Amino acid sequence: QSDSSFVALLNEMRRARLTPFSVALLRGAVANPPALGPSTTKLFAHNEPADRENERRLLELQAAPREYVALDDENKPLARTLRENCIAPTALQLRVGARVMMLKNKEVDGIHLFNGMCGDVIGFEVRAVGTAGNIRRAPRPQQRSSGL
């Protein structure tokens, strides 16, 4: 939102009234698309091709995979409903170097992370998890020797 000409262009598009300047800006963007790098986010209309692309990129990384499995209370109806409607998988495999995206807004150590924010995995650490009075050590992630 700091690019005022881009914001103006978006507002014109919303009203379906593009100025000649905005049309020229759009034509220039189509004629000269930026180079796509390995960290470029690709958008997919369906989950399956996105999952295949993510798996392909993950397998390209040389680091050992680590798997994290959600610890949900299977017996609570609310937990079951949330899990069924959640876009995050119940088991997540990561490697150092993997590109990841936030799926919700969250504040961590005073830093505001937002839905859609991307980053790269730089390492793993074990932390205590739980709530006050119910602290337990997070299980160490499983390491696999296969390409999974």
From TrEMBL:
**Could you tell me the superkingdom of the organism this chain comes from?**
Eukaryota
Q: What is this protein called?
A: DNA helicase Pif1-like 2B domain-containing protein
InterPro entries named in the record: Pif1-like_2B_dom
Q: Which positions fall inside the DNA helicase Pif1-like 2B domain?
A: 79-124
